[in-house]
Design brief:
- This is Acetyl/propionyl/methylcrotonyl-CoA carboxylase subunit alpha.
- Its cofactor is biotin.
- It comes from Luteimonas rhizosphaericola.
- By secondary structure, the protein is an alpha+beta fold.
- The chain folds into five domains: 100 residues, Rossmann fold, CATH 3.40.50; 70 residues, Dna Ligase, domain 1; 242 residues, ATP-grasp fold, B domain (D-amino Acid Aminotransferase, Chain A, domain 1); 130 residues, Glycoprotein, Type 4 Pilin; 68 residues, OB fold (Dihydrolipoamide Acetyltransferase, E2P).
- The strands form ten sheets. The chain has an eight-stranded antiparallel β-sheet with strand order 14-13-10-11-12-15-22-20. Strands 26-27-28-29-30-31-32-33 form an eight-stranded antiparallel beta barrel. A five-stranded parallel β-sheet has the order 3-2-1-4-5, with helices on both faces.
- α4 packs antiparallel against α5.
């Protein structure tokens, strides 16, 4: 086994590898960019070395600098994590040429799978089912357009290199083919350095099933069961689970055997994932092999009890696989979701900023949290905005879903906006609960998951939040009175009590952009609270840890509550409400557009395309520019009809949030 390994990655996956290495007594070396100098992976490793600027091309993609650090630190092997250089065959070769071990498959295997086109051809020759399409080297627009017409619509354009849902487009007519092709090629070139694409028939309403495979240097290859990843938005997985609720035992066996056949076809060693799409009738087709550890590998670990990073290390060190195929365990059901700094109500716009507050569930036998940040850290604009992965496990799927709902209710993120509300809606939706969601469902029915009813309209949540605020206020006042010169004076306590009657206290809260005014009477857990003509009586209200119990109009109620300076969160198990006491609320209205004549950057990013020139006439909704930020492209559109008066940015220029890019004239 190795004494020291270098982790050529950052964030959650780097922290994940460090945990296993430390358990095995292996020293870890981290690398970090200028933006990650204070990041958790750099703090957790035994030593950490700087490797360059904030952008990936200036740091985490600089293989030669990473190899220099490995030599200087005495590392014997390099774990690439996922993303960045993890599927770069040239880097794997360079690692071996430097006398080090690449903790992953051989470069030859990666090259055979590095191109989706070549991979499809190889799998077809090996007898693995593939989707009909075009994988040729001729990438001219004329040839690709002709092949698209031959395959028929709808079809899928895919980047031939890379993964993670990048460089993929569904095209439904020949008229929209070329514009989607150009966007896909540009995104592929930016993400993977190569713009080759392939075309394939688009399978309607498919399920996405992936099989975890493992091989070793002794000719052994097995699979570690499946994961279903059908809950996706724009080809990005948002919920993964094992086992799949869709597969029959016969289909599960057939797909497992096909996955092992695919791994053997390329002499695969170490961890990999064979991905399939499955049509509603159960016919399955090879998609790709991801030659690395997957983001969703904890789902497999929770249902097998195995540590896949440990397996990676042992196989890379030359050991045989620890288990034979018939000894692979399967226990219960596991589900994973990813907490992101993004705003679902604004088209899932990625966010950035300091995590002023980050409350996540306590780890247990049923709940696992894999995070690369802690409270006080910053989600930067340069990398994927994932905050943490939340994984739950129980004896069956209904109980696992209940665990996940409970775990999400305990999550509080303050700073950048997050997708917690979206995830809570997702795990309660009938399509998920009944196990019938397909890969396109979220995109077809997104309105069922975002932009729901305002939680402040729920009187139960609102009055519970107000009660929690009152109790916290009285607790603070009692503490202050105890420290005063007259701790027994009712005037020092100032808790709303009045001689002969219950004093009235106006309460004001901010919820999103709305002001909520209430009137409260009473003290010490017994109140009458009114919002306009709606009046409720509260009795027996008590705060105990993170729980508020009370009787509201004689009905008992218990809710989860979180009280922080300037913020009250309540959650009844289904819905969440966040209020800010108005006196403590700071309105952040700076940076809004001055009018409809200016098109601004919604976040920091790089201008990758300008669709117009000064003097051009434009119509409302017409695309004016394309901004690349946080691994995605954002189309900036005209807010009204007009004429382009001025362009204030150039293609390739990096712009800050709220920068004016285009000025319109009448």
């Amino acid at each position: 086994m190795f004494d020291t390994i270098l982790i050529a990655n950052r964030g959650e996956i780097a922290c994940r590898v460090i945990r296993t290495a430390r358990r095995l007594g292996i020293r870890t070396v981290a690398v970090y960019s200028e933006a990650d100098a204070d990041a958790q992976h750099a703090r957790l490793a035994d030593e950490a070395w700087p490797i360059g600027g904030a952008r990936p091309a200036e740091s985490y993609l600089r293989g030669e600098v990473i190899l220099e650090v490995a030599a200087r630190s005495g590392a014997q092997a390099i774990h690439p994590g996922y993303g960045f250089l993890s599927e770069n065959a040239d880097f794997a070769d360079a690692v071996e040429a430097a006398g080090l071990v690449f903790i992953g498959p051989k470069a030859a295997s990666m090259r055979r799978m590095g191109s989706k086109a070549g991979a499809k051809e190889l799998m077809q020759a090996a007898g693995v089912p593939v989707v009909p399409g075009y994988t040729g080297e001729d990438q001219s627009h004329a040839t690709l357009s002709r092949e698209a017409a031959r395959i028929g619509f709808p079809l899928m354009i895919k980047a031939a290199h890379g993964g993670g849902g990048k460089g993929m487009r569904i095209v439904r007519s020949l008229d929209e083919f070329l514009s989607n092709l150009e966007s896909c090629q540009r995104e592929a070139a930016n993400a993977f350095g190569r713009d080759r694409v392939l075309l394939e028939r688009y399978i309607q309403s498919p399920r996405h099933i992936e099989i975890q495979v493992f091989g070793d240097a002794h000719g052994n290859a097995i699979h570690l069961n499946e994961r279903e990843c059908s809950a996706q938005r724009r080809y990005q997985k948002v919920l993964e689970e094992a086992p799949s609720p869709f597969l029959t035992p016969a289909l599960r066996t057939a797909m497992g055997e096909a996955a092992v056949l695919a791994a053997r076809a390329i002499d695969y060693a170490n961890a990999g994932t064979v991905e399939f799409i499955v049509d509603p009738d159960g016919a399955f087709y090879f998609m790709e092999i991801n030659t690395r550890l997957q983001v969703e590998h904890p789902v497999t670990e929770m249902t097998t009890g195995l540590d896949l990073v440990e397996w990676q290390l042992r196989v890379a060190a030359g050991e045989p696989l620890p288990l034979a195929q018939d000894a692979v365990p399967r226990h219960g059901h596991a589900i994973e979701v990813r907490l992101y700094a993004e705003d679902p109500d604004a088209g899932f716009l990625p966010g950035s900023g300091r995590l002023q507050r980050l409350d996540l569930p306590a780890p247990s036998d049923h709940v696992r949290v894999d995070a690369g940040v802690v409270e006080g850290d910053t989600v930067t604009i340069f990398y994927d905005p994932m905050i943490a992965k939340l994984i739950v496990h129980d004896i069956d799927r209904p109980r696992a879903l209940a665990r996940l709902r409970e775990a999400l209710a305990q999550c509080v993120i303050e700073g950048p906006k997050s997708n917690i509300g979206f995830l809570e809606a997702l795990v309660r939706h009938p399509a998920v609960v009944e196990g019938r969601i397909d890969t396109g469902y979220l995109d077809r029915h997104l309105d069922e998951f975002v932009g729901g009813a305002d939680a402040s309209d729920d009187p139960t949540l609102l009055f519970a939040a107000a009660t929690a605020a009152l109790l916290q206020q009285e607790r603070t006042q009692r503490d202050a009175a105890a420290a005063s010169t007259e701790p027994g004076s009712p005037w020092a306590i100032a808790d709303g009590w009045r001689l002969g009657h219950a004093g009235q206290r106006p309460l004001a809260f901010q919820h999103r952009d709305a002001r909520i005014e209430l009137l409260a009477q009473g003290h010490d857990g017994r109140y009458r609270i009114a919002r306009g003509s709606h009046v409720v009586d509260i009795e027996g209200a008590r705060l105990s840890g993170d729980a508020l119990s009370l009787r509201m109009d004689h009905r008992g109620l218990r809710v989860h509550v979180s009280l922080q300076p300037g913020r009250v969160d309540v959650h009844d198990g289904e819905r969440r409400l966040t209020l800010r006491p108005l006196a403590m609320y700071r309105h952040e209205g700076a940076g809004q557009a001055e009018g409809d004549d200016r098109v601004r950057a919604p976040m920091p990013g790089r201008v990758v395309a300008l669709r117009v020139a000064a003097g051009d006439r434009v119509e409302q909704g017409q695309e004016l520019a394309v901004l690349e930020a946080m691994k995605m492209e954002l189309a900036l559109k005209a807010p009204r009809d007009g004429t382009v008066g001025e362009l204030r940015a150039a293609v390739g220029e990096f712009v800050e949030a709220d920068s004016v890019l285009v000025v319109l004239e009448d």
